[in-house]
């Protein structure tokens, strides 16, 4: 408001100054006497020579005033445009400076030893637990080993030695991607990382639009766009550090090395995490190469391998187990029914999304999730004042992100599974409802912008998936076709009518934990390790802005209620994945279903309650249960070292959450065989018009 008032005052002063200048110019003009004479003439009367002269002088004076007024208006408009341009430039410059300072501070903190400063400074602990705890997996030693008496050294002291070869299957966004060919704007980054390490920052800030164009896949094929080729970096360096100071698998590799492992018995099965498992095999032969590596390990070392998979890597690994034993004629690897039994000692699932990730759906719908609600809040706080200067910038960036997410098959592969029994419905609500929270009878609620919340449409996960696929088929035909099997049969029929080629593009549902059985491998062991005690996204409240071409669907970031903040409902989990998706399959399905675990493979479920770091020195994920930072949890690393060293019997079940009660409720609901609720739409169909 002060800015508006000040601007108005400056405008009035400028106009007054311009008027004064115009008056001075008029007094000095050659025809000023005519103007003064005209101003003294009361009328245009008179028909004689004097009268005609008076009329001529009056017309000349009025013409001069018209020209002077036009000059004044032109100068005023030019000044207003210049002031507007200057204000916009200042706003953008400030935003860039803030971002640059934040990036520089984050990076320099790995070079300068701030830990002692923060611990001794007043309020240091508060700063650490509120601000620093929001950053992912920060290791102050950069690439240097800092924990000389870590889990590896302790395991070695207890007599453990390397036994089983280790294969690492990394998770979503945790493998470096390098450029092999690209557009003219990106050719200078040949064989440099477009994702991971400081090289990514250079490419991003050099030309953000160019960087985004290279990161996006072709929506018609699900593969590389014409002329662009990004490929996963090979070797352990592809997965150890995301950037200096930000570890992914570095702590595991470090402790494995301390135990006695080296590059000969550790393999990083890095991959392009943008692709779906099907496309990984089609484009890169990923599954075939992984099969070959594991077979080589068995032949060279005489021991079966241990697979370590984190996050989306669990989705890829379960797909691989299903694929490798399926005959080639049916789209598999042709390894035979006993391949896993012969080559795999243990499968270690670290924070795997067995039933999908809730935030995958809003990522496709609008490019938003809890992590981006701050942008929506900023837009709301600014209101209409800077709508063009800032609001449209935010909207365009979210639109760019949304289109990129939609092109990645990996995001579609992580869409929630399990239906209403897992994610709730209009009748029974959600199985993971908290007693004090608002009853959760929807996964996605959408209402027209400005309409009362009671007029919104409550979508269950089933109807929300139908809506997403029906809405996006035109612009994202490949991913809609590949994953259309997750929708209702009626929606599949409609999608097929829209695109008859869909039937040939639909992927086999390899790795679906609720429909595809574990391999028949009686001697294999499965370990499900994940963190608990952190709120995770579960449901979303949206507004539909019919006239907004950039963001027609927007999270209602102004909506707050019991259990809902910024339009996002959260429940128990690891900060990214809900508890049901993390533990239900391991704790219930694979233990009770002979159909889905035909060989009665033993399954251990082990939870790691989240413990926030208490000082900067320990801010290395050493006791965290967060989805990313758990990769530095020393308790979990000790368990993994015991597994790979052949002491798997030391790793026991440990469930401290409400998982057992939650699993029992989900199992009860699934036993009811409740049909999908396709009537959640006002028109009884999943059309974009019904939102």
Number of strands: 17
Outline the low-pLDDT stretches: 1-6, 29-45, 106-143, 372-390, 675-691
What is the rounded distance between the termini? 37 Å
Approximately how much helix is present in the residues?
40-55%
Give the oligomeric state: single chain
Q: What class would the helix/strand composition place it in?
A: alpha/beta
List keywords for this structure.
691 residues; alpha/beta; six-stranded mixed sheet; 17 strands; disordered N terminus
Question: Can you give me a brief rundown of this structure?
Answer:
This protein has 691 residues and is of the alpha/beta class. The protein is elongated and about 125 Å long.
What topology does this entry show?
Layout: H1 2-28, H2 32-40, H3 49-108, H4 115-120, H5 124-130, H6 151-157, E1 166-169, E2 177-181, E3 193-195, H7 197-206, H8 208-215, E4 229-232, E5 241-243, E6 246-247, H9 250-259, E7 266-268, H10 277-284, H11 286-301, E8 305-310, H12 312-325, H13 339-343, E9 344-350, H14 360-365, H15 373-382, H16 387-407, H17 409-413, H18 420-423, E10 444-448, E11 457-459, H19 461-472, H20 477-482, H21 489-498, H22 502-505, E12 525-532, E13 534-544, E14 553-555, E15 564-565, E16 568-573, H23 579-592, E17 603-609, H24 634-644, H25 659-671
Parallel strand pairs: 1-7, 1-8, 8-9, 9-12, 10-13, 12-17
Antiparallel strand pairs: 2-3, 2-4, 5-6, 10-11, 13-14, 13-16, 15-16
Helix pairs in contact: 1-3, 2-3, 6-9, 7-8, 15-16, 23-25
